[in-house]
Specification:
Blueprint lengths: L9 H4 L35 E9 L2 E13 L2 E10 L2 H5 L2 E10 L5 E10 L2 E10 L4 E8 L5 E7 L10 H6 L8 E6 L6 E15 L2 E11 L10 E7 L6 E8 L2 E12 L12
Antiparallel strand pairs: 1-2, 1-14, 2-3, 3-4, 4-5, 5-6, 6-7, 7-8, 9-10, 10-11, 11-12, 12-13, 13-14
Amino acid sequence: MRGRTPRFRLLLAISLALALAAATPSAPQSPAVAEIRPAPSGHTFHNGETLVYGGEWRLIHAGNATIQISANGNEEHVHGVADSAGAVTLLYRIHDRFDAYFDSRTFCSSKIVKHTEEGLRRRDTQIVFDYGARQAMLDETNLRNNEKKHVPNELPGCATDVVSAIFYAASLPLQPGASYMFPLNDGGKTVTVTLAVQEREEVKTPAGTFRTVRVEPSAPEGVLKNKGHIWVWYTDDDQHIPVQARAKMLWGTLTLRLTRIDKTGTTSASSGGER
């Protein structure tokens, strides 16, 4: 059964747009080298908002994912959650928690902490980004046998992580035809992510109808290599809210749609309809 059951950590992974995109041959390359661009002048973060998503696989409700961002001094703190639901939980239970921190001006990640429960797999993971030493230090504990791992990996002068990447991507212009490359580290070798901005589309979700721009992320190495295709739809405005994500894999297609946006101190705030 496990071989035919999807790895539902994608519920969080694709909702965070942690990925890369293959540009078409005619798409202009901007920039030509992989780099993390500082936050543009006047850029603001929607602190205190929680994005709530529902996941669908083969026409059944597969799970839920949430992303929350808040200020933490000079850093931004991103808290992500992914849980399987319904019949899917009986096949392959998922209970994942992610906490990532990045500099609010430079977008350089400083730390990511993960607690992952996926089927029989249970791990606590921490990755610390030490730019002075040019190392991403991985510390991981297998909670089933208490086996520990301590591994340094080479790091460039600035990189993002699989959780913070969604907010970095949202800071980019996202004009159709553009392509962006940036370094990303998830505890192993730093990979180059390419984000190709494709077409404008209207997307309907439980949170409302949105005018969006579609991006396709992909990478030559890492978690998405040879796994299929992933697309993310951001609102086509200054906010660039990720309202939908879709992963087309060998085991089928998983779609995440925005259900609502909760504000601090509320439990069911709506996105406000069409954008």
